[in-house]
Design goal:
It contains 3 helices and no strands. The radius of gyration is 21 Å and the shape is rod-shaped. The longest helix has 23 residues.
């Protein structure tokens, strides 16, 4: 679960990085009303990025190893 948590954290960070880049390089707001609807709405990706970061941190902190590696034949996985 630790590696999965790290992967989910990286996915959330990539989503948020995309949102930051998209908002920084977005089109300038024009006076026409139809131009406002052409601007990209980033609310949903930001929420998903934050949720992915929180879920990844929780998985990393509270997740176990996910498997048992032992050579003892009496212990089965």
């Amino acid at each position: 679960m630790k590696y999965t948590g790290i992967a989910v954290i990286l996915i959330g960070a990539c989503i948020l990085l995309f949102c930051i880049v998209a908002s920084a390089t977005g089109q300038p707001v024009q006076q026409a009303p139809e131009a406002a609807s052409a601007k990209m709405d980033l609310m949903f990706p930001v929420i998903m990025g934050v949720v992915a970061l929180v879920a990844g941190v929780v998985m990393y902190l509270y997740g176990g190893r996910g498997y048992i590696s032992t050579r003892n034949p009496a212990i089965r996985n």
